[in-house]
User: What shape does this take?
Amino acid sequence: MSAVKLGVVITGGPYTRQASDTAYQFVKAALEKGHEIFRVFFYNDGVNVGTRLTVPPQDDRNIQKNWSELAERHKLDLVVCVAAAQRRGILDKDEAGRQGKDGDNIAPGFRISGLGQMIEAGIVADRLVIFGD
Amino acid sequence: MPTLHMVNKSPFEDNALQSCLGHVLKGDAVLLIEDGVYGALAGSAVAGMLGQQNGAVSLYALGPDLAARGLSEKPLLGGVDVIDYGGFVDLVTTLDRSQSWL
Amino acid sequence: MVMDEGPLEGSVTKRFLYVNRRAPYGTIYALESLEVVLIGAAFEQEVTLAFLDDGVFQLTKGQDTGAIGVKNFSPAYRALGDYDVTNFYVEAESLGERGLTLDDLQQITYEDEDDDWKEKPSIRVVSRRELAAIMAEQDVILSF
Assistant: This one.
């Protein structure tokens, strides 16, 4: 089968919902099959995947770390929605400065951008898949 | 122009599966994932809902989610195919669109 | 997929359907879905909104959130016509199951530029069967 360009949207919060775990397994399987992941967009409570300050128990998976490492290995574009992130306290350095906050917490391999990035994924990708709550 | 419908909720707590089945068209596929796989059990109170599809739609359940929930050996409804994440990817890429019934 | 006839060569117009199945305020999904619709309108795609199951509660008139201390975002649906978002499909069965009729929903209208700017209703009540057919015509289905 020829390669397909996939857009992935994650709206379920990490640990509370399985959505980010299912999406991770799906993206790994898609990459193994030679498909292209155009973008992974984090929205709603899904933005909470993108904080580097989580400390899950050592005998469980680390959702943020898994995504950061997968992104580095495969040059994935992990985008956290800025509006949803601001509501939930996910900030990068620029945003923390702009909002007068005393620190940032965005995880390696993630970037914060607008909702337009999700619409663009819908337009550019051959298929868009949503993993949610 | 078939659609892949994805259901991730147990039919015993949420109407997503019921609503999904009310909107499927002939030739579509329904994939049960996460807690949605509870809907694939044979002999349950909601088994009739999926049974009524009578082959008009293809039914799938995600094997890793069945296994995680201790359901690998449980009898499933007739016509439900168990697939892995690779099979999930194949469904997404071969059908025309995917719709998540969240 | 419909090829755009606009100035950008090679650009495509896709059909985007926003499926709303959740009631407002109890969870954030209705609000954050609306925020996507507002941003997405700038991309000049073909946009349709579907309201079914508890999603029909998003459009009820007379919402007053003062006493729960949460922002009332229901007026924003009436502004969508100004962004060329004019196709609101509300499922008849979902209304009926909840004891609602069209009269329980806010009036949402748009001015039709192809018909002398006549004011027309954005909401159309359709059957479950009709809505299923509308879903099957889409390129991208967003649901939150």
In short: Chain C touches chain B at residues 19, 21, 29, 52-53, 93, 128, 131-133, 135-141, 143-144 (CB under 8 Å). Helices of chain C lie at 29-40, 75-79, 92-97, 128-135.
